[in-house]
Amino acid sequence: QVQLVESGGGLVQAGGSLRLSCVASGNNFAFDKIGWYRQAPGNERELVALITNGDITNYGDTVNGRFTISRDSAKNTVYLQMSSLKAEDTAVYYCYAGKFFSGRYFPYWGQGTQVTVSS
C-alpha cells in the first residue's frame, strides 16, 4: 500500500523560508509525477509544484520563482523549498503522486502538513 508522509510544515514569518519533505513508501514502481498541492480555508486545492520522473517541473503561477521542487529518487523523497513566503501561502500542503498503469491513472495523496505564514 502506497503511503506519502509529509513533514516540515510550521509557522514562519513573512519573507522567511521553509522546506517540506514527502517520503513515499510501499511503491515498487516509479511515480510518473510527484509533488505538492495546497488548500487554504475556503479555497479549492491548487497546484503548487510537480516534478516528473524525467525531472520536468511545473509550478503554480502564484509560487513560480519563489518555490523550488526537487527529488531524491534513492530516498523516494520529494522536497519543496519555499522562499520569500507570503501570508497568502498559508495553507495545508499535500504531497501528491501519480502513476499511469494499464490504462488507468492512480493518484495518491498524503495527509497534509500545515504551513502558516505570519505577516
* Order of helical and strand elements: EEEEEEEEEEE
Count of beta strands: 11
The end-to-end span amounts to 40 Å
The percent range for helix content is under 10%
Q: What is the alpha-carbon Rg in Å?
A: 14 Å
Unreliable spans are: none
Q: Report the structural category.
A: mainly beta
Q: What is the count of helical runs?
A: 0
What is the overall silhouette? elongated
**Biggest sheet details:** 7 strands, mixed
List keywords for this structure.
single chain, 119 residues, mainly beta, seven-stranded mixed β-sheet, four-stranded antiparallel β-sheet, 11 strands, 58% strand
Question: Could you characterize the architecture of this molecule?
Answer:
The protein has no helices and eleven strands. The radius of gyration is 14 Å and the shape is elongated. The strands form two sheets. Strands 2, 4, 5, 6, 9, 10 and 11 form a seven-stranded mixed β-sheet that branches. β9 (91-101) and β10 (104-109) form a beta hairpin. By secondary structure, the chain is an all-beta fold. The termini are far apart.
Question: How do the helices and strands line up, and which of them pair or pack?
Answer:
Layout: E1 3-7, E2 10-13, E3 18-25, E4 33-39, E5 46-52, E6 57-59, E7 67-72, E8 77-82, E9 91-101, E10 104-109, E11 113-118
Parallel strand pairs: 2-11
Antiparallel strand pairs: 1-3, 3-8, 4-5, 4-9, 5-6, 7-8, 9-10, 9-11
Short description:
The protein is mostly beta strands and 119 residues long.
